[in-house]
């Protein structure tokens, strides 16, 4: 079924790891990438080869750097992590493509063989994403294994929830995550054939939870109250859509698709500021949140709208015979798309001000905040803070901030070995570029592809043409990216505030300033 050479690679990789042979592990990873790029292997074989390469590189990073990212002048292993991420992504791409092509009988030996590699790839990819601070993305990938009762995925999901809780300033959420982690860990310890190292690790996590929480609280599954999802069918449908897609600005939504998660409760933690500064960061975060939830609703509204709107009546348009889609619904999608993309730079503006990086306002972007200098010829200037070095420093380590950096790398279309780390971002970015600066044309998802196949030179030469379904998929992905960025920002500030309080002079007086909640009834123009 599979070329024997593919299995031989796995055997050599395991032996190199046992021998702590970092040079061989690195060579195996690069060789696997070349084999995947060649046309010599099937999709299944390419998926397995990429998996062996990714695992080899992960083991290389573990042996050489103890699995940690480094950005200092003396040591920088960012390229190693990029290569490892690329190989895991190629493994998942090829395995998924094989699944779509192959007619696998559920329960067959071939199906079980394939599923094992797919689940291992998802799980190990999630482990690497966690080290890169992509906390929410790591949890989402582990859910694949959790849903299929894959024990390592379940145990790691529990451990990641414990980490996630430490970055959440909400103590109520922390206790809920602790209870869920405990339930999952106790369940996974009952599985048979768990490797000894994993079993001991999960036992240690159980013991850690039992040190911090009463046994009586942990041993009984947390019972969530049922909350109303709205006063109308439309509102209930919208909130269910947000829950199912994990779109609420609420960390509970990453683990629980229940009504308790159906609020945008996330905000900033308490911030220590000078007495004359006021709540400027809370005000900026208000705006970021409001723009996100409004864009989110416009996407849902556009996707759920039926029929023509009265505002489109008697608007004279010509039929260009390529099945274009016009109307207020598609324009809402475009407006929300622009707004979501602008939020990435608004998050960067927040980071520049909060961490006092020193970038001039006109130069702030999601790319520039990670530099040590703004390079503008004669107008170049050095920055006050090198954020990349700072966030991995021993005293200032900030994993959510690291995650924000790797998120920005995705948005910035980072290429490794001629591949994008996140291939979907090229399409997402191209849509945004044509929306802002060129001409985006959206077509009917059924009729347009049929027409273009039967009619050569059908495409509009002035437009970047996509279907409604392609636009929808891009908007959904972009919503997930921006949500992740907003939550990582809140968590990064939380860790920084904890560090500030720890470093405060004990004689320094901090006066609390209470801020009431902005009432929902005030959210109107008139």
From TrEMBL:
Pfam families membership: HEPN_LA2681 (PF18733)
Residue stretches making up the LA2681-like HEPN domain: 274-496
Protein name (record): LA2681 family HEPN domain-containing protein
Species name: Alkalihalophilus lindianensis
């Amino acid at each position: 079924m599979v070329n024997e050479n593919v299995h031989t690679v796995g055997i050599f990789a395991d032996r190199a790891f046992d021998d702590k042979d970092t040079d061989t592990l690195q060579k195996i990873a690069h060789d696997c990438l070349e084999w995947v790029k060649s046309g010599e292997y099937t999709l299944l074989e390419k998926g397995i080869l990429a998996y062996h390469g990714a695992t080899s590189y992960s083991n290389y990073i573990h042996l050489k750097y103890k699995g940690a990212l480094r950005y200092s002048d003396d040591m920088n292993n960012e390229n190693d992590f990029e290569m490892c991420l690329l190989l895991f992504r190629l493994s998942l791409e090829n395995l998924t493509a094989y699944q779509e092509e192959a007619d696998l009988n559920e329960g067959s030996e071939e199906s079980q063989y394939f599923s094992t590699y797919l689940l291992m790839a998802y799980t190990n990819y999630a482990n690497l994403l966690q080290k890169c601070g992509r906390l929410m993305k790591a949890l989402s990938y582990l859910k694949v294994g959790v849903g299929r009762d894959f024990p390592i995925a379940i145990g790691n999901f529990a451990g990641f929830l414990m980490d996630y809780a430490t970055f959440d300033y909400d103590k109520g959420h922390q206790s809920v995550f602790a209870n869920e982690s405990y339930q999952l860990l106790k369940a996974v310890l009952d599985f048979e054939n768990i490797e000894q190292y994993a079993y001991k690790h999960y036992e240690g996590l159980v013991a850690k939870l039992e040190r911090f929480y009463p046994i009586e609280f942990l041993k009984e599954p947390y019972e969530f109250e049922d909350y109303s999802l709205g006063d109308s069918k439309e509102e209930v449908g919208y909130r269910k859509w947000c829950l199912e897609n994990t779109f609420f600005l609420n960390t509970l939504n990453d683990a629980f698709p229940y009504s308790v998660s159906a609020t945008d409760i996330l905000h900033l933690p308490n911030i220590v500021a000078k007495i004359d500064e006021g709540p400027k960061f809370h005000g900026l975060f208000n705006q970021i949140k409001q723009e996100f939830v409004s864009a989110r609703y416009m996407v849902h509204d556009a996707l759920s709208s039926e029929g023509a709107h009265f505002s489109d009546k008697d608007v004279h348009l010509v039929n260009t015979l390529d099945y274009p889609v016009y109307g207020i619904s598609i324009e809402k999608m475009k407006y929300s798309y622009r707004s979501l993309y602008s939020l990435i730079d608004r998050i960067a503006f927040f980071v520049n001000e909060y961490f006092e990086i020193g970038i001039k306002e006109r130069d702030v972007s999601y790319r520039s905040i990670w530099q040590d200098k703004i390079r503008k010829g004669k107008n170049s200037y050095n920055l006050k803070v090198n954020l990349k070095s700072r966030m991995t420093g021993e005293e200032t380590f900030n994993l959510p901030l690291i995650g924000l950096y790797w998120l920005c790398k995705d948005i910035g279309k980072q290429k490794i070995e001629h591949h994008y780390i996140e291939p979907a971002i090229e399409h997402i970015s191209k849509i945004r570029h044509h929306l802002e600066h060129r001409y985006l044309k959206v077509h009917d998802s059924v009729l347009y592809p049929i027409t273009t196949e039967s009619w050569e030179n059908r495409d509009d030469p002035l437009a970047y043409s996509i279907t409604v379904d392609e636009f929808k998929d891009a908007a959904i992905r972009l919503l997930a990216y921006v949500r992740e960025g907003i939550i990582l920002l809140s968590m990064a500030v939380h860790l920084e505030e904890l560090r500030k309080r720890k470093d405060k002079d004990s004689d320094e007086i901090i006066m609390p300033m209470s801020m009431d909640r902005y009432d929902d009834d005030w959210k109107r123009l008139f």
